[in-house]
Structures are given as C-alpha cells and as structure tokens.
Amino acid sequence: TGLLRNKGSLNGHSALQERDVEMIAIAIRQGDTHASIAKKFGIASGTVGQIARGETWSWLTRLGAEKVDYK
C-alpha cells in the first residue's frame, strides 16, 4: 500500500516499550514459558508467541530468524 507504519512504541496501539520487548526476548531465549512472561508484562501469551515467532518486533529482537533443526 505504500503507507508508512510506526514501529514499536511509536505505534499508538503498542502496549509495550522497546526495553520491555528486549527483556521478553531474553526470557524467551532462556526458556521461560510464554504464560509466565505474559503475566509478568501484563500481556496475552499469544503476544509473547508472536514475538517468539518473529511475527512482531522482529526488527528489534531478531527472533524468528533462527533456523529450527528438526532432526
């Protein structure tokens, strides 16, 4: 569409700040459950899942860029 969208906390609908998402990414990498992370930050576990899969905030976290080995 050619429209520019504000990323991160510049988006008025964002419930998270960049520092929050960085801390969430660390917790994900450490193996914390999505439910425990969600509770800590007051967000839905589905939101944590989206961050983990790189569907949102991937420009900041680089999550979802790692290749999964299905051996």
Give the helix tally: 4
What is the N-to-C succession of helices and strands?
A: HHHH
CA-CA gap between termini: 40 Å
What Rg, in angstroms, do the CA atoms define?
A: 13 Å
Note the main sheet: none
How does this model look, in words?
The protein has about 70 residues and is an all-alpha fold. About 45% of the residues lie in helices and about 0% in strands. Helix 2 crosses helix 3. The chain starts with 17 loop residues before the first helix and ends in a 10-residue tail after the last helix.
Brief synopsis:
The protein has about 70 residues and is an all-alpha fold.
What topology emerges from the helices and strands here?
Elements: H1 18-29, H2 34-41, H3 45-52, H4 58-61
Helix pairs in contact: 2-3
Descriptive terms for the model:
71 residues, mainly alpha, 0% strand
